[in-house]
Amino acid sequence: MKLKVYADRMSQPVRAVIIFCKVNCINYEEVRLDIAKRQHLTPKYAEINPMKQLPAIVDGRFKLFESHAILIYLACSFPGVADHWYPVDVFKRSKIHSVLDWHHSNLHPGPVTIVRNTVLAPALGRPFNPEAAAEGEKILSASLAKIETVWLKDNGRFLLGGNQPSIADLSLVCDIMQLELLDESDRDRLLGPYKKVQQWIENTRNATNPHFDEVHKILMKAKEKRQNQRLKGENHGGGGSDMKKPLVSRI
Amino acid sequence: MKLKVYADRMSQPVRAVIIFCKVNCINYEEVRLDIAKRQHLTPKYAEINPMKQLPAIVDGRFKLFESHAILIYLACSFPGVADHWYPVDVFKRSKIHSVLDWHHSNLHPGPVTIVRNTVLAPALGRPFNPEAAAEGEKILSASLAKIETVWLKDNGRFLLGGNQPSIADLSLVCDIMQLELLDESDRDRLLGPYKKVQQWIENTRNATNPHFDEVHKILMKAKEKRQNQRLKGENHGGGGSDMKKPLVSRI
């Protein structure tokens, strides 16, 4: 029975898992659930993942949730996954665990908080919350500074310093990619000070393309749709939407 | 060269690492830093852990931070650690990763937020913040309910259902133990509805004693000190301290 990946590509950890499967030629079936339509909250999906979050996988009789755990499981269970993704060497592997653990409580809440409280708020049925978004900016900046000065300090192409990405690069970069939903000027303002981070995002993208771009298409489409809505609003004399204001003015 | 563990036992992930070392007869040196005295924020410690958090380890030339990554490293690198702590079996191991990942963004912020914003606030130089503590209570209750109904639903002694604890049991239970700092009535109110969780805490304690109790002594002493200060305040006609009010009234 084929591996099933329960997914909404609008979710950044979902994208990391999907890209990993594609890059490593893992044969899988993508079971699409729409978070905006609350399809991850049904009792049927709770049988797959009782935490009602995406992604989750089913491999035969084995069910698993949490994207880092899934990435490690896939790296260990499917033949042909190159060692650099999750090295057998205990020291390298431990560094990956350290980055992934740090990510949970540091980088991850940054982009999530910004995007949820600004551009994604209407789709999620939430109010715009500039204070929460500002808090998200602080978390993001502090975390990007740490990535730049700790893991990328030796000018390595990837977080562990090697020439090939690990699951940690993929997970963290997919999170930062969520900022694509913002206006270009806001994204540039947030990422601008971190040149090494920008290069590392590009390195991870190049190392996983064409899959990286294909899986992120949904973000680009959402961004385009939003921009069109804004232009339409402006052409109709303002439209009165928060969407037309740049993020910086809403925070 | 002996393994060094940089530690303040007031920190719950530190306690998990220390208990793990003791239970598994890992020969280590405990390098004590006092968080209340900001000793984890010095440039000297930043050379060990640039994130300036505890715990961290140094094993020969290898440095590592993040407690889950440390527990996994120790389980894989030191001879004599029983398999149940971090099983070789990929399915069991993946479930441990899943619990540990879930813990970061779900259970962990609960006790931390409650305790930091109430009883530990003065020692940390922070104001009491009843709103933040109330938010922490919500997070804690939601997470305990999930532990009770997902991982403990089959009445197993431990989270993975076996008869021996894993690193996930140790990590999560040490976090919940932080609630010992609260008044007995507040702790009972918060844990009271979760009978299976209470039994699981006791199972983890029994499986790791006498080390569990020894490493948690610091919490019990801090609790006793706080109670004595309160009594002293009451004997002097009130004392005017927030300490005398039960947590429930401060939230």
UniProtKB/TrEMBL annotation, chains A, B:
Q: Give the protein name, as stated in the record.
A: glutathione transferase
Q: What is the lineage of its organism?
A: Eukaryota, Viridiplantae, Streptophyta, Embryophyta, Tracheophyta
Keyword terms, alphabetized: Detoxification, Transferase
Which PROSITE patterns does this entry report, sorted A to Z? GST_CTER, GST_NTER
Transmembrane in keyword set = no
* Organism from which the protein derives: Hibiscus trionum
Q: Which reactions are catalysed by this chain?
A: RX + glutathione = an S-substituted glutathione + a halide anion + H(+)
Enzyme class comes to: transferase
Q: Where is the composition biased (Basic and acidic residues)?
A: 224-235
Q: Which family does it belong to?
A: Belongs to the GST superfamily. Theta family.
> Residues in domain GST N-terminal?
1-82
